[in-house]
Please model this.
Amino acid sequence: MKEQDLKIALRKFFGFDSFKGRQESIILNVLKGNNTFVIMPTGGGKSMCYQLPALLSEGTAIVVSPLIALMKNQVDAIRNVNDDEGVAHFMNSSLSKTEITKVKQDIRDKKTKLLYVAPESLTKQENIDFLTSVNISFFAIDEAHCISEWGHDFRPEYRRLREIFEKISNVPIIALTATATPKVQYDIQKNLNMLDATVFKSSFNRDNLFYEIRPKRDVEKEIIKYIRTKAGKSGIIYCLSRKKVEELAELLQVNGINALPYHAGLDVATRGKHQDMFLMEEADIIVATIAFGMGIDKPDVRYVIHHDIPKSLESYYQETGRAGRDGGEGECIAFYSYKDVEKLEKFLQGKSVSEQEIGRQLLSEIVSYAETSVCRRKFILHYFGEAFDETQCSNLCDNCRNPRERKEGKDHVLKLLKALLDLQEMQKSKHYCAYLSGHVTSDIKAYKHDMLPDFGSGKDKDEHFWNAVIRQVIVGGLIFKDIETYGTLKLSDAGKDFLKHPQSFILLKQHDFSNTDDDDIIVNLGGKGGAFDETLYDMLLDLRKSISKQKNIPPFVIFQEPSLKDMCFQYPITIDELTNIQGVGIGKASRYGEPFVALIYQYVEDNDIERPQDMVVKSLVNKSGLKVQLIQNIDRKLPLEDIGRSQGKSMNEVIEEIEVIVSSGTRVNINYYIDNILDADNQEEIYEYFTEADTDDLSCAYAEFDGDYTEEELRLMRIKFMSEMAN
Model:
């Protein structure tokens, strides 16, 4: 096909006037019947490389794809540019027998140009038999890195694709991936028996993306602060676990951020709905596991946040690649703690030895990336076998924007390279760090390396320092990790030359990520994360006192002291924010809140106070459900003891829960219960006491009545008083 005809077809089917990058050369190669291997970053237009040839070829192209959601997305896209719905189909476990029959008939009728299948579907004999009976134009393998054990998303069923293809038809293959190191690339080609393939490798440099690693401290708080600077912009937040996805999505919603969860544990309908809401901009943010994003064609994602560090640099690169696909702004923020890495290492337990070794090697690369002070763009591109001049980064990574201290490191580099020779290039990074720093580990002892004359030649520096040197010397090209031996360090030709002719080598001071936390979401119960404002507290006490005189009610009825103290940490300036204060519900905030938030607003303005972004995580669904159940049981006038037994709680715990509900501003009527334990005169006496008291402290009430009433009776009467007076 002539180039001009190809452009006419592009315009006809997709409405584009020109190809992107190397798409045209790739498509022409496929149409010539050649095996083709495409390595193209996310957003580069990989799908066009097989979609257009399929539409122009005789027969049906088989596209192997790993995710049902991705298949649906791709099929819908093709149907949108064609008059015939039958032009594209998918065949997987989600279809009924009737639907599968319809798909097969469309293929027989030569209507279908693209058939998307999961690798599992291809292994079924009935499907193999059917596909051998029809005309196949070519095979396309999307997300081809799944073939390689060294890929970040290895799937064993992908290893069988070549034998299945050979059973079906001897036609060309096009394999496509967004992430492939030289090792993974070779592994894919070898497994598919397509070492003769024409390789099209685009640059991995996404020059519009900004890369930053932050220490994992107060991570939820930091994420919310960041999102508030990006109001109205689309973002994706990746977490490792489904539980964390759910918690974080709920936390964001509580804090007024339009976010939805997405993970494989949600039912198909919910996942589809959340994905569509994100694409249609009905939700700003998707909080997801890696189950989200493959093939999601949303060009204007403005930021990708990693709540947890991913398990490989390939995963990280692919996930960050979902930002700024339109060439516009794209910020990639990852929160790093070595505790996350330790968790990922635990996930490797129980796998085969080779899988564990590969997994650890991939983890060591992501750790190196996180902790390096080298230009992050240079580090990523070096990993994918591409050279990059860091002066071209244009300050689009945190290390170039805020460069670290630089020092001459020639002598340190020489010590490292000599150590590699001493140990015959047979060890991994950790071993060399111990050897140079003089740390006698069990391995050092076993190999008797502590007996060598240069053991401890760099003992003036610790293992953390030597690890940093190794990372920078690898990026500098003097040594490399031998993947075949799971990461043992070897001298490159440049390294051997450096030993003969030493020259200047600048080392950068590394980041210190030792001070990180990895706690779960913290419920703020007041006083966490900020300095207590004594001046504001005195002003709030005075305001409460004046309102209590005006309304002729005790001050504690308005807001109790813990609530006032929490206001002095959080500085709420709206009624909505006031409901996030400890012990303040919607009812109480509406009734008494206006003068308090007005005072705090003026105080914040006058003193130019930067308010902390502390947040309260509202009760989880199960706790909220129990609270509602408690109120319903009280409305049904059930004895409090019976309510406690039904929820597995003591009487004391039931009363505590009612106190929390009432102090938050919800009216609760327990008169039916109190009437059974106290007569009217006793109730009136206690009620009158609370009306005139300066404090609601029970010990004061107990002392006032000289033990005439039990603590439980006084607590129940205080609930009655607060419910009627405050709410």
